[in-house]
Write a structure and sequence with these properties.
By secondary structure, the protein is of the alpha+beta class. A hairpin with a 5-residue loop joins strand 5 and strand 6. The two termini are 24 Å apart. It folds into three domains: 48 residues, no CATH class; 116 residues, Immunoglobulin-like, CATH 2.60.40; 71 residues, no CATH class.
Length: 251
Amino acid sequence: MKKLIGVGAGLSLMSFAGMVGAAPVQYSAKMTGAEEVPPVTTAATGTATCTVDDVTRKADCTFSHTGIAKVTAAHLHRGAKGNNGNIVNQVACDITKTPITCTGIMPQNAYDDLVKGDVYANIHSMANPGGELRGQLAKGSLPDAGAGDSGTTPSDAGSSGSSGTSGTSGTSGTSGTSGTSGTSGTSGTSGTSGASGSGDDAGAGGGDAAADDGGCNVSPMSGTDLFLAAGTSVAVFGLLQARRRRAKKTE
């Protein structure tokens, strides 16, 4: 009986994790020639924005640029700031589109590097085959896309605007009110308080923890109900199977 209950509990946890689902997390970067290694002199500028599913690791990226006459290639690369790295070939970019679009499933090691800030976007050109524009991806949206954010880095913008928005998508609505507040916060300094409100209401133990889970918070009550229901179902099924086997042996 204890074994059946243990199996039921394990299956319940697996089912619970699947129902929680994945959450998209935004990463962005300003792209300049000065970021290239070695740096290149160019008047071109650009931005990169990637939305990455934190469970499936599916990445959808957009590279915008101005001032490049002929783009020859675009990629995501694994590499820390100031270092060149290998291309993430699993995320393919279409340079025939404006802006450039990239999509694919990131390998686990590339995703781990992305979370650490060790993945960069790169646009290659006819004038600079090794790369004309580069930007190190960081969690959050760009400052000029934050509408009222006072920070100067992508991660700063994300902490005030993006975190509040992810509160809106809380699965059980526990943090829904604060999430809405976070969204309105993007239009001014109240965005920061929206972010902290989202973290507190989600019960994740603080603003940083709430930001790390990508808004994938779940009501404790709904998780408990699911665990008990699934565990009970599996236990009952196991008992029925055991009785059938005993009945066959008796025959």
